[in-house]
TrEMBL record, chains A, B, C, D:
<dbReference type="GO" id="GO:0031515">
    <property type="term" value="C:tRNA (m1A) methyltransferase complex"/>
</dbReference>
<feature type="binding site">
    <location>
        <position position="144"/>
    </location>
    <ligand>
        <name>S-adenosyl-L-methionine</name>
    </ligand>
</feature>
<protein>
    <submittedName>
        <fullName>tRNA (Adenine-N(1)-)-methyltransferase</fullName>
    </submittedName>
</protein>
<feature type="binding site">
    <location>
        <position position="160"/>
    </location>
    <ligand>
        <name>S-adenosyl-L-methionine</name>
    </ligand>
</feature>
<dbReference type="GO" id="GO:0160107">
    <property type="term" value="F:tRNA (adenine(58)-N1)-methyltransferase activity"/>
</dbReference>
<feature type="domain" description="tRNA (adenine(58)-N(1))-methyltransferase catalytic subunit TRM61 C-terminal">
    <location>
        <begin position="62"/>
        <end position="221"/>
    </location>
</feature>
<dbReference type="InterPro" id="IPR049470">
    <property type="entry name" value="TRM61_C"/>
</dbReference>
<feature type="binding site">
    <location>
        <position position="117"/>
    </location>
    <ligand>
        <name>S-adenosyl-L-methionine</name>
    </ligand>
</feature>
<dbReference type="InterPro" id="IPR014816">
    <property type="entry name" value="tRNA_MeTrfase_Gcd14"/>
</dbReference>
<dbReference type="InterPro" id="IPR029063">
    <property type="entry name" value="SAM-dependent_MTases_sf"/>
</dbReference>
<dbReference type="Pfam" id="PF08704">
    <property type="entry name" value="GCD14"/>
</dbReference>
<keyword id="KW-0489">Methyltransferase</keyword>
<keyword id="KW-0949">S-adenosyl-L-methionine</keyword>
<keyword id="KW-0808">Transferase</keyword>
<keyword id="KW-0819">tRNA processing</keyword>
<dbReference type="GO" id="GO:0030488">
    <property type="term" value="P:tRNA methylation"/>
</dbReference>
C-alpha cells in the first residue's frame, strides 16, 4: 500500500481513486505508476512524496472507531511472550483490529491470528482494516470467546476484554504447553481479580506490569522529556501454561 | 530445546548429557524421550517438569557475558519500527546476541538478521548463543560497521553502539526507502548528538524516548507497584529514511 | 482572605466589592460578616460556601501571568533542603511569586524571604501577590542577582533562572555553612553545566533529580492512574556549602 | 546539634562524649569548642569537618528502627496541604518520628505537632529522637487515635496507619474548616477504601497521587537517570473539610 506525504509531513492513503487534497489533486494513474521515494506534484504544483506504507503508517491512518492499544503496550506484550514468526495466536476482542494487525505482521504467513469479537460493527471495521493491509493470515470470528475457543495448541492468547477472567479456562484449554496468556486491562482491580483466577488455574510465571513511555524533546535550546505524556493506558498481565 | 523446571520454578537447560542438580540427576535418555508437560524424577525422587524453551527462557539461560538489552526496550523498538516476519535487519553491535535472537525470532526464515560486532570474543559468544537456539536466519560478522555495511535495501538498522552517529551515513545507504534506523544509548548526551546527525542526513520521523516498566505486586494484603524497579536502561532513538 | 465556592466547586476570591457571578451576586456586607463554613446565597438563590483561603487556594487564584513552579517541585525542594520555620532564604527570580509565597509560608515571621527579579513587570505582579496574601516576611528586589546578593548567612538560595551557574559564586558567599543551594531548570543541559560549576566551587552533597507525580483516579468502575499527566516540569539540583 | 564529616563524606553525630572512629578519636572538649566549618583532627591526624546538623542530617542519623516516610513524600504532602509556620497538626502513628520532626520543623514554635502512637516502644524511640533534635513544639501521645483526638481546630491531620478510614470521623471533628486530612498508604486497595469513606464523610477536594523521584547521574561520560530507583513507597490521599 502506498501513502503520500505532503511538505508538512501529513500522510494520505493512496486509494483506488485520484487523491484530492487541500493543495490540489494527483491522478490515480500517476500514483499507480510511481514507486517509493518518487515525488509527485498536484495540479497546483505542490509536492507529495510516495512511500510504501509500513504497519505503523497503516494503523495510524486506518479506521480507528474504537480505542486501540498503543504500540508501547503491544511491543512489550510481544517481547514478554516471545511472539515470533510462525506462531499461532488467539485474540479477543478484536476491536478495530490494531493488535490483530500488529500480531499478524509478526507471525507472518506461516503463523495465524484468530480473533474473536462479540460486536458485529467492530468486527466489520476490523475486517476492512485487516484486508486493507493485505493480510491473509487472519481469521476474524464474530462470536463470544467465553463460550468456547475453536483452536488448539496455540502459542499465545491475547485478551483485551473487560472481564478477561471469564476466559481463563478456555484460554488454558487452547494453549499449548509453555504458551502464554496476556491480558490488557485499564484498571488495577482487573489485574487483581485476573491474577487470582490465573493462580487458581495453575498458570505459572505470573507477572503484571505497566509500561510508561516518555518522549524526549531534543531542541537547540536544550533536551528534556516532553511536558505532556500519556499518564496511563493499561496494565499487562501475563501467565504461562505449564 | 528443552528446559526442566524444579519445584521452586528454577529452570535448567537440558543439554546433551545427564542433568545433574542439587536434588539429584536425570538421565539424558529420559530427557530425550520426554515431551513438553511431562514430569521427570531425579534418582532422589524430586520432580522436574519438562518445557519446550521459548525465546525468553533461552535468553535468560544463555551465556550473557556482556550486558544485554532488556525485553521492554526490544519490544518497544520492534513495535515502533513495525518489525515483522520476512524483514531484513542489520544490527551493530552483536554483543551476546540477545537482540539478534529477539529480532531473528520475529523476522523468521523468510527474513534475515545481519549482525556486526568488532570484538571477536563477543562475536563467538553470540555465535554459540544463536546456534544454540537453532536459528538459521542470522549472519554474524566480526567487522566494523563504521567501515561499511555489505547489505542493501534492509528494513531496519538497529544500533547498540557507543557512537551510533558514526554509522548514520552507512545506515542510510543500506536502508530501503521508508526503512528505520533505531539506536539504543544509555546517555542523554548520545541522544542529543545522534539526533543532530540524523537531522543533517535528512532522516524523518525523528523520535527519542525512554521506556519504563513498573511491575505490579499482587498479594493478599494488597496491590502496589514493586518497591524496587530498574530506574533507567537506555534511550531509544528512531529515524526513518524517506 | 476569604474565598467562596459554588455548588460545582469553582472558587472565587472575596474582594473589597460585591461578588458578581453567573449565578447572581452577593453583597460585600454579607461576605464581610460571614465566617468560614457559612453558606451565603446570591440574589438568585444559589448557594456559595465561605472558606478561609489557604496558600494553595491563593496561588491558584492569584495573578499568574508567568509560569509558576508546581507544588510537587516546591515540596520536594523544601524537603530536601530541610526548609523550616525561622529560616532566611534568598530567591531568584521571583516571577509571579508562587515559590516566594510558598517559602514565606514555611519560614514564617521569624524567617524571611529575599527575592530578586530583573524584570520590573514580574516584580510588580509578585508584589501584588505577596501583599495580597498578607505576608510581611518578604522583601522583593528588582535587581540582578548575578551582580551581587546583599544578604549574608542565609539557609537557602533557591534559583529559578535560565543560567543559575552565573550565581553560584554569589550564592556561596551569602550562604551559611551547611546551607543549601537549590536550582530549578527545565533542561538536562542546564543540570549538567550547573553540576560542573557546583563541583568547581566545592559544594558538597550534589544531587539532581526529577519529581513525577501520578494522580490516581478512584471511580466506581475501577482504580487507575489518570490517563493524562504532566510529563515533565523541571529538574531540581542541590548543593550544600561546607 | 553538631555532626562531623570525614574525608569520604561519612557523617557522625557529635554526642556528649569523645568521638571514636575507625580513623582515631577526637576529644569532646575540642568538639564542644568548635564551630561550624572548623576542621578537627583525630589523634591519628585524620581530618573531620564540623557542621551544624540540619533536619535531614539528623533524620538520616537518628534511631530509625521502624521504616520511615521518605522526604519526597513528606515534601509533596506538605506542599499539597499548604503546611506552614504556626500551624497545628495531628499525626498518627508516630513511628520513629521522622514525619513528626519534619512537620515540627515547618510549623515552628508558634505551631505544634500532636502525634499519636499505639506502640509504646515506637513512642519511646520517637521521644528520644524528637528531644534529641531539640524540638519543643511536639507532644507525643501513646494512645489510640481511633478512640478519640483531644485537639480541636487543627490545620492538618496526617495519617500513616494501616487503616486510616477508621480515623476519618475523628479527624473531621478535630479539623478546622478548610483543614486537610492527608494519609500515606502503601497499597492501592487502601486508597480505594479511604476515598470511599472520605466521600461519605463529605470531605472535598479529594485527591490521590503517587510521587516518583528519579535521581539524575551527572558524570563525565554522560548524563542519565540512575539505573536503580525506588519503584514505590506509598500513595498520598488528600481530603479537605469544608
Amino acid at each position: 500500500m502506498k501513502i503520500l506525504i505532503n511538505e508538512k509531513g501529513k500522510k494520505f492513503v493512496a486509494g483506488a481513486d485520484d487523491l484530492h487534497t487541500d493543495h490540489g489533486y494527483i491522478k490515480k494513474e500517476e500514483i499507480t505508476s510511481s514507486k517509493s521515494g518518487d515525488i509527485l506534484k498536484t495540479h497546483l504544483g505542490r509536492e507529495f512524496r510516495v512511500l510504501e506504507a509500513n504497519i505503523n503508517d497503516y494503523i495510524e491512518l486506518m479506521d480507528r472507531r474504537c480505542s486501540i492499544i498503543l504500540s508501547k503496550d503491544l511491543g512489550v506484550m510481544a517481547a514478554y511472550t516471545g511472539l515470533g514468526c510462525g506462531q499461532r495466536v488467539v485474540e479477543a476482542g478484536t476491536g478495530a483490529g490494531a493488535a490483530t494487525i500488529f500480531m499478524a505482521n509478526i507471525v507472518g504467513e506461516t503463523g495465524h491470528v484468530y480473533s474473536y469479537e462479540l460486536r458485529e460493527d467492530f468486527s466489520q471495521i476490523a475486517d476492512k482494516n485487516v484486508k486493507g493491509f493485505g493480510l491473509e493470515n487472519v481469521t476474524l470470528k464474530c462470536q463470544d470467546v467465553a463460550e468456547g475457543i475453536d483452536e488448539e495448541d496455540v502459542d499465545l492468547v491475547f485478551l483485551d476484554l473487560p472481564k478477561p477472567w471469564d476466559v481463563v479456562e478456555n484460554a488454558r484449554d487452547c494453549l499449548k504447553s509453555g504458551g502464554y496468556l496476556a491480558a490488557y486491562t485499564p484498571y488495577i482491580d482487573q489485574v487483581k481479580l485476573l491474577t487470582r483466577i490465573l493462580k487458581k488455574r495453575e498458570f505459572s510465571d505470573l507477572k503484571s506490569l505497566e509500561c510508561l513511555v516518555r518522549e524526549i524533546e531534543v531542541k537547540d535550546k536544550g533536551v528534556r522529556p516532553k511536558t505532556r505524556m500519556t499518564g496511563h493506558t493499561g496494565y499487562l498481565t501475563f501467565g504461562r501454561k505449564v
